[in-house]
Amino acid sequence: MKISLLLCTLLCFTELCAQVPKPQADTLKYLIVLNNGVEYVGQILADDGREILVLTQQLGKIYIPKSDVKSVTLVDAKADYKAGEYLGQGVFTTRYQFTTNAFPIKKGENYALVNLYGPEVHFAVLPNFSVGVMATWIASPIALAFKYTVPTQNPQLNFGVGSILASSGYFNQAKGFGGLHWGMATYGTRRSNVTLSLGYGHFNSGFSFVDQNTYYQPGTYPAVFNQGGPIFPIPEMLTYSEEVDNFNAPIVGISGIASVGKKASFIWDVMIIGGNKRRIFDDQDIQYFYDLNGQPSMVVYSDPIIEVQSMNMVFMPGMRFQKDQNRAFQVTLAGVIGKREEQTAVQTTVNNYSFPVPMLSWFYKF
Q1: Would you say residue 80 lies in a domain?
Q2: d(Cα 124, Cα 149) in Å, to the nearest integer?
Q3: Does residue 145 fall inside a structural domain?
């Protein structure tokens, strides 16, 4: 009887043990970055506190000492993979060539950007707020860049605002100043997105002088008689004061990035810069007319003030090649296409122009 009871107890215990689910390995995939910059992507099968067992697609199971691990980040199976190949979000995906998008710079993923014209650094201060410094190689001009991003419930739709405050630096004893202020909306993922930006740019050279010019009151004046004969009249003199080297204009930006593989992305960055109408001084044309007898008939003084308006489009398509999560190289075949319209009292002249501005850039995470 005792033996039968013991057997029943053992059978019940065995059945209960069979019903308890066994712990399973984590099926999520992680990006594991080592202190030496080497990266692995795979499932973490085990972690005993001293080392982790990782199942990778290329190497299979490998043991990694935890003392060699710099970071472990969960990857998105949909956004970070393409055709079964890991792409990663990328540290530099918040930036195009010149403009940025509404994705924030993550804490610990600060980056430096070295261009042919000068260096930049951008770093996260708060989860959705970043600060940057932009300059030429002689630190003139130099600028501070700020960006604040606003995520939404839809992870593919993000908004943000930004501002660049610039100084002329050593030029003109830092009296020159300017800025660019904009709002933006980004749709897509970090690896593939498009951004629409609306902004306003302004610049003041800091020079205190103005260009003063004198000219005759424009108009048509008939000859007047003086001392028994007709003469050409002399109209009133006017003074025109023109501020020089100042600029302000609305700016529209359309930019995007599209992944074309694990190591490369296509970048396009377009800025349309509209110019406000400016009044500038030109030479005054004076035309004298005579009658059939050769006597003065009338004189015409033209208006020397010309209204000038310019519009420019900066077109910046390029390719970004990312060796790893810490470094990338970008080549951009940029160019400027513009139109300058000059309008006088009698005619309008339009001049079109274009010229290339190729760029090379190097990205570094720090």
Answers
A1: no
A2: 11
A3: yes
CATH number at residue 207: 2.40.160.40
Check: CB of residue 194 under 8 Å from CB of residue 256: yes
Of 159, 148, 163, 161, the C-alpha closest to 187 is: 159
Report the predicted TM-score, pTM, of the whole model to 2 decimal places: 0.73
What's residue 24's pLDDT? 45
* Domain span at 65: 23-75
- Is the confidence at residue 111, as pLDDT, over 50? yes
Q: Which two tokens stand for residue 343?
A: 């309008």
Q: What is the DSSP string of 70-111?
A: EEEEEPPTTTSEETTEE----TTTTB-SS-B-SSPPPTT--E
Question: What gap in Å lies between CA 93 and CA 108, rounded to an integer?
Answer: 15
How many structural domains does the chain have? 2
Asked if residue 233 and residue 116 are part of one domain, the reply reads yes
Q: Which of 161, 179, 97, 91 is nearest to 360 (CA)?
A: 97
Do 282 and 337 lie in one domain? The reply is yes
How would you class 102 by CB atoms within 10 Å of its CB: exposed for 0-12, middle for 13-18, buried for 19 or more? Answer: buried
